[in-house]
Design brief:
single chain; alpha/beta; Nucleotidyltransferase, domain 5; 2 domains; five-stranded mixed sheet; 13 strands
Amino acid sequence: MSKYAIGIDLGGTKILTALVDKEDGTIVHSVKKKTKKDKGSENVIKRMIESVKQLLDESKINKKDIESIGVGAAGQVDRENGILVAAPNLDCFDLKIKEILEKEFNISTYIGNDVEIAALGEMKFGAGRGYKDFVCVFVGTGVGSSIVANGQIRHGASGTAGEIGHIIVDLNGRMCACGAHGCLEAYASRSAIERRIVGALKKGRISAISEYMKEGKPISSKMIKKSIEVEDELVIQSVLEGSEYLSGGLASIINFLNPQLIVLGGGLVDAVDFFYQKTIKKARAKALPLPSKSIEFKKAELGDFSGVIGAAFLSDN
């Protein structure tokens, strides 16, 4: 009989919940809910519970066949106690996810960082297969990363290893959601690129992206892609700025850790190949010559599902 697990990817704009067959990583059923307007610990945990209930109802799988729930959260986590310590983009602090979900569903629950679970998914079934030393970097609402060393996720002394989004790239720079100034995330995330575009539009800059925003929708990776395809100057400038900063962060990873591979993922990387290609070219140029020659780059292969697949395997790590 197949072993099933529920994987939950708790991101800055959505909660993706999936029932995963642990034999081969197959997604049996999935549920997606937005989180952007439902910030705060109370709202987030409510949406998570709703998602799991909907998943159980729609998948028709007996709860007895589900061995665990794994949660990957966009923020700092206490893995041992199952607490989301701080997720500024969600306005969540000290959220006792493990305790609440185990009480609600009577299923063993495990928690990890959102990019940690993406790295687990890519290591088992995606771009990281066959590699023992690599780094996953995902560009979305923020910039997150996870380190795989000798085939294991590297957590660090306090469990926060891999926070590349919060390396300082400008000592007196922009305010980051974490409260610090000059973090990489404040320059290279999709959110940072979006803020730069919106700020320029408010000052009167003309851009093709305005045509896609007429329905009041926030800027998406697809809108950015369409704007680049028509050679929109503002969007290209904004993306190149994000790429410039991200490539510097990647060069720092290459020089410091000397991994075999860097896996890049997230909506912006998936949708905008211009951003991906420019970033890896610049990262190679900025890194030291010897590690630059040996480093490999790949796009994440599992797309939106890398996180939920990885989360389903948190109980094994």
